[in-house]
Structures are given as C-alpha cells and as structure tokens.
C-alpha cells in the first residue's frame, strides 16, 4: 500500500477541482437564457404573477446569487442534478442510464487503441526504415487529419451499406431482443464500428508516440549494456526497453482521455449509440441546459477517475517509482 | 540552446568560423560563433522537405480556391440547382444535397468559414496558452501554482463538450465559436510554454540580461520568449489543424452559424441520407481531411526544420 498516500492526495485535489466544476456549472446556468421557472411557465402556457412568485420561491430563485449557489451545491451533493423538462424526469436517472454505454464504448476503444497502437509502434521501431515504419508514419498523419465523425460515416457507407457486415445504428437489435449470451453478442456486433472509428485516431497517435519513444529508449546506454552482457535481443527489447518506452504512451492516454470522451460525443451521434454523448447532442437540440451541464459534470468526473487510474498505472510500470514509496 | 547553436555553427562552420576570428576578444573562450542566418537556414531546411512542401502547396491551393473559387464557379451554394440527391455527373460535378443544392459550390464556399474560424481559434489558443505559460514559467512560486491549478481545471473538462455548452448558451456565431474553441484548447500550449520558460529562465544569457537591469516584462517577452518560440510555432500549426477539426465537429452537430455554409454543416445536414447519397457527405469530408493533412505536413516540416539534431544532415 505504498502508493496509498500520493493517491489520497490526488483524490482530495480532484474533489476540490470537482467542486470548481460545480461552481462553473452554476455560473453557466445563470448565463443561460431563461431560468427554470420561465421554462415551466412557458410549458403551462402562461401563469399569474402569484404562481410565478410561488414557483420562484420553490426553486429558490428569489434569493441572492450566493445563496442560490449554496442551495445548488447542496442539491448536487445529495445527487439532485436538476430536472429535465424535455425528458420529463430527473437528470441523474437519465445520466446513470446512459453512462454504461459510454463507458463500454470509450474503454473498448481505449484498449483497442493502446494494444494495436503500441504493437504497431514497437514492431516498426525495430526496423526504422521498414515498410511497417512507413505505414505507421502515414497512418498516424491520416488518423490525425480525418474528422472522426466523417470516418464514422465512411465506415457506415463501406461496412454497413456496401458490404453489409455490421448494423447501421444503435446498441442492440430492437426487433429481436436477445437474452443472455445472445444479447451480449448482439451488443458486441453493434460495438465494432463505433469502437473502431473512435479507436482509430488513437491508434494513430499511440503508434507514432510509442515508435518514437521506443527508438529513443533503444539508443540508451542501459540497452547497450544489456546487449553487451549478451542478453538475447528479444529479452532486451521486450523486457528492458518496452517498460520504459511505454511510459510516455501511458501519460498520453491519461492526458487524452478528455478528448477521447469528446470524440465519443461525435461517434455516438453518428452511430446513434445510446450513451452520454448522444444525450448531450439531444439536449443541445432541445436547449435542455440542466441535462447538458450535468453531462459536463459527469464527464469531468470520468476524466478525473481516468487520471487517477493513469497515475496508478504509471506507478506500477515505471521501474524508478515502483521500488520506492513515491 | 547550446546544442542548437553548436550544431548551427557546425552547419555553417566554413563561412562563419574564419570571419569571427579577427573580431577581437570573444565573450568566452569556448563559445561557438553565433549563427548568421538561422531563419534562412530553417527555410532552406523546410524547402528541402518534400512532404512539407507538398503540404504547403496543397494548403495554398485550398486557400486560393476558397478565396477565388466562388467567383470563378459562380453557383450559389444556397440555391436549388437540380433535383435533390442528383448523383455526381456532368451538370453537378459533385452532385446535389437533400435540398438540391450544389455540393461543389458548398465545398468551395464552405472552406471560408472553416479556415477563418480555424485560424482565429488557433490564434486565441496560442495567445492564451503563451500568456499563461509565460507568467507561470517565469515567476514560478505561487503564481505558477495558481495558474497550473487553473490549467488543470480546464484539462478535466472534455474540450468538445465544454465548447458545445459555451456555444449553446451564448450564440452560434462564427466569433463565439472561435472564442469557445480557443477558450477550451489552450492548456497544452500553456504547459509547453511553461516548460520552455523553466528551462530557459536560468540560462546564462538571461542572467546576464537580468544583471544588466532588464525588467520582468522585457525579460519575459523580449529575452526568453524568442528562445522558447520554436516548439510554440509547431504547437501553433498543430492548433490550426485541431481548431479546424473542432469547428467541423461543432457544425456537424448543428452548432455552427446557420447562415454560413461550412464543410461540417454540409455533412451534418445530409448525414441522415448518407446510405442513399454518399457523395453529400464524402466530398466535404475529403476537403476537411486534405486541409488538416496539409497543415499537419507543414507542422511536421517546421518541426524538423527547427530541430537542430536533424539539421546536420
């Protein structure tokens, strides 16, 4: 448990940042046109001044801004993220319902990108002038330059329409709801195209990064020492070099998690994947601010969790940190 | 810094070394002469880089096409010229969209908004990033601690989502979109600038300038910043590409300026029909792809040209 102390510090700092996100959310709600009461009154088709005043008192809108902030913070702490007037239900339930789909998509893409990306990078680093190496260079450029939503649409045209291998949209077949294993296979079938689309950008960036990093590490003194000792090349590369070459990639994974989530908004919209990203898109169309801001809060939380996990992974991989407390 | 000037001197050695010999006492015994024309060297290095020049030509073509293309092509991108979903053919080279509007005209005009927003958003990104990174890296201490906390705060907000919220709450005008993109994506530049400042601020020549009585602002922006510029320039090129992808994403989601044609908007409006009319989404996407690709190629080329280790070749 030697990693417990620094991780605890990270947790406390993260909670403080999270409170800041809540305050930001509150400020954004203040800036958003129309408050809760005017939305309700609008839906009721007008109301008497007394009713409006009563509603304002009920929602605490008759109080000062700092007092309203206090009320808002208290509500968020107790899990009350507001009420979505478009979906006509509390926001928290909406989000919790959509969260698993997003996590499934993002984590699958991340694993895919990490495994394929580092494998490509490391194999190509062993032959810096080889075909694979050139492929990695070109692919990483192309992967960075193609807008992810467009890649998704092209995937649909090719792999769902031209060669109908995969379903066009959704997360499961609505017409034939499967059960047990059948359901799992159905979801995986639907997952392929979105996960590959989202993962592709990161395959590009991780393969390039791990290639550069591996080339750097392979020219280090301790690798020459390992070779001079007569260790087999395989052992030098995969035992001595790999661990250090992976460090920048792990850092990158943590730093880019927020962007990965942002990419998920676009990919989920393209593939009608019922996650938080598509919920964000739907709530923008309806100007549903409570839902939109709650998604912002939740995604910030996801990014934080990812950062803490990255930190932990880094401590487990880095031989310099591994041996000591911190 | 030292390795850079050393290798520069090595590259231009034969010309400069004899010239500097008779110039009397040099500041220190072991120092190499200052390079004559670093900018020219960089440009020459860039010009020799084939992919980078390809990118430059490609980008120039795209910019010229969006500037002068509408005048030459003369088809209004908003007017209906043919049946909806007319496939690419002799009448409409790239076909028509769901309202029967010419895709080619849309692609030519749509580049204007995308490029303008991309460039100005990147400028805002770099400006905020450099200012915050400069202050944090130069002053250190509590200034650094506070600014880095702010940076960390912005880093945990998923960029696109935050920009979506800002554009939804304020308006969907080109100016708001550019500011929103800049406001959410400056963190990487700030960290980079800070790291460069921390590296440079204790170098001998900065100490010398400080001893000579230079004030903080002079030291920050006239002494240290020029030396920190090379990686910032590369980051700026990257920021233009990212901002263009950002703008395209926002317009695709329907958050673009509804009165201005843009590549993302064409794709977003036609995406429901893509299985019947592939051309409506394919061509604007290729335009985005080629633009960002050309900028990435240029960025890579600038990176190589500014990298002293590669220059020796």
Automatic annotation (TrEMBL), chain A:
It is found in: Cell membrane. The lineage of its organism: Bacteria, Pseudomonadati, Pseudomonadota, Alphaproteobacteria, Hyphomicrobiales. GO terms for cellular component: plasma membrane. PROSITE patterns: ABC_TM1. Keywords: Cell membrane, Membrane, Transmembrane, Transmembrane helix, Transport. This is ABC transporter permease. It is a multi-pass membrane protein. GO terms for biological process: transmembrane transport. The keyword S-adenosyl-L-methionine does not apply. Residues 99-310 form the ABC transmembrane type-1 domain. Its main location: membrane. Pfam families: BPD_transp_1, BPD_transp_1_N. Belongs to the binding-protein-dependent transport system permease family. The chain crosses the membrane at residues 7-29, 99-123, 135-163, 183-204, 245-271, 291-314. It comes from Jiella endophytica.
UniProtKB/TrEMBL annotation, chain B:
It is a multi-pass membrane protein. It comes from Jiella endophytica. GO terms for cellular component: plasma membrane. The lineage of its organism: Bacteria, Pseudomonadati, Pseudomonadota, Alphaproteobacteria, Hyphomicrobiales. The chain crosses the membrane at residues 54-75, 115-140, 160-184, 223-246, 277-303. InterPro entries: BP-dependent_transpt_permease, MetI-like, MetI-like_sf, OppC_N. Residues 1-35 are annotated as: Disordered. Keywords: Cell membrane, Membrane, Peptide transport, Protein transport, Transmembrane, Transmembrane helix, Transport. Residues 111-299 form the ABC transmembrane type-1 domain. SUPFAM superfamilies: MetI-like. This is ABC transporter permease. GO terms for biological process: peptide transport; protein transport; transmembrane transport. Belongs to the binding-protein-dependent transport system permease family. It is found in: Cell membrane. Residues 16-33 have a biased composition (Low complexity).
């Amino acid at each position: 448990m030697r990693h417990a102390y620094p991780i605890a510090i990270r947790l406390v700092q993260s909670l403080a940042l999270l409170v800041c996100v809540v305050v930001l959310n509150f400020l954004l709600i203040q800036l958003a046109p129309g408050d809760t009461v005017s939305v309700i009154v609008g839906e009721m088709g007008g109301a008497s001044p007394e009713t409006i005043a009563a509603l304002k008192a009920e929602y605490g809108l008759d109080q000062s801004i700092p007092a309203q902030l206090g009320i808002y913070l208290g509500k968020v702490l107790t899990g009350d993220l507001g009420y979505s007037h478009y979906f006509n239900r509390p926001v928290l339930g909406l989000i919790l319902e959509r969260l698993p789909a997003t996590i499934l998509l993002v984590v699958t893409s991340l694993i895919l990108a990490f495994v394929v990306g580092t494998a490509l990078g490391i194999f190509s680093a062993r032959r810096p002038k080889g075909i694979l190496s050139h492929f990695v260079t070109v692919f990483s450029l192309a992967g960075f330059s193609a807008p992810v939503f467009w890649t998704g649409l092209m995937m649909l045209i090719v792999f769902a329409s031209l060669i109908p291998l995969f379903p066009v949209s959704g997360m499961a077949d609505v017409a034939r709801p499967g059960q047990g294993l059948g359901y799992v296979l159905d979801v995986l079938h639907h997952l392929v195209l979105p996960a590959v689309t989202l993962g592709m950008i990161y395959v590009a960036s991780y393969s390039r990064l791990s290639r550069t990093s591996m080339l750097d590490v392979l020219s280090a003194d301790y690798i020459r020492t390992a070779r001079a000792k007569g260790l087999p090349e395989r052992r030098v590369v995969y035992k001595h070099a790999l661990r250090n070459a992976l460090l920048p990639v792990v850092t990158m994974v943590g730093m880019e998690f927020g962007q990965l989530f942002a990419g998920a908004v676009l990919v989920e919209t393209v593939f009608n994947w019922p996650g938080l990203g598509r919920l964000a898109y739907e709530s923008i169309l309806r100007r549903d601010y409570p839902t939109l801001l709650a998604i912002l809060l939740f995604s910030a939380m996801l990014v934080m969790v990812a950062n803490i996990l990255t930190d932990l992974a880094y401590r487990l991989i880095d031989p310099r940190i591994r041996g000591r407390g911190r | 810094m030292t390795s850079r000037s050393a290798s520069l001197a090595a590259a231009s050695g034969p010309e400069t070394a004899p010239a500097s010999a008779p110039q009397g006492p040099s500041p220190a015994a072991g120092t190499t002469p200052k390079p004559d024309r670093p900018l020219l060297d960089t440009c020459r290095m860039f010009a020799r880089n084939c992919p980078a020049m390809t990118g430059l030509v490609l980008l120039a073509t795209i910019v010229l096409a969006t500037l002068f293309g509408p005048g030459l092509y003369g088809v209004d991108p908003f007017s209906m010229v043919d049946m909806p979903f007319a496939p690419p053919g002799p009448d409409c080279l790239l076909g028509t969209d769901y309202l029967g509007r010419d895709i080619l005209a849309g692609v030519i005009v749509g580049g204007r908004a995308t490029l303008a927003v991309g460039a100005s958003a990147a400028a805002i990104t770099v400006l905020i990033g450099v200012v915050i990174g400069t202050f944090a890296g130069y002053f250190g201490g509590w200034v650094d601690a506070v600014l880095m906390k702010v940076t960390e705060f912005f880093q945990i907000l998923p960029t696109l989502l935050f920009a979506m919220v800002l554009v939804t709450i304020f308006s969907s005008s080109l100016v708001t979109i550019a500011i929103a993109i800049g406001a959410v994506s400056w963190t990487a530049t700030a960290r980079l600038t800070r790291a460069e400042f921390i590296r440079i601020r204790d170098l001998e020549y900065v100490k010398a300038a400080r001893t000579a009585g230079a004030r903080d602002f002079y030291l920050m922006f006239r002494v240290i910043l020029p030396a920190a510029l090379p990686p910032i320039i590369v980051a700026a090129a990257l920021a233009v590409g990212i901002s263009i992808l950002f703008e395209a994403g926002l317009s695709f989601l329907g958050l673009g300026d509804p009165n201005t044609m843009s590549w993302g908007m064409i794709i977003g409006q036609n995406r429901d029909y893509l299985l019947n009319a592939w051309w409506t989404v394919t061509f604007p996407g290729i335009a985005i792809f080629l633009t960002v690709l050309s900028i990435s190629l240029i960025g890579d080329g600038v990176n190589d040209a500014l990298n002293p280790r590669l220059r020796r070749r």
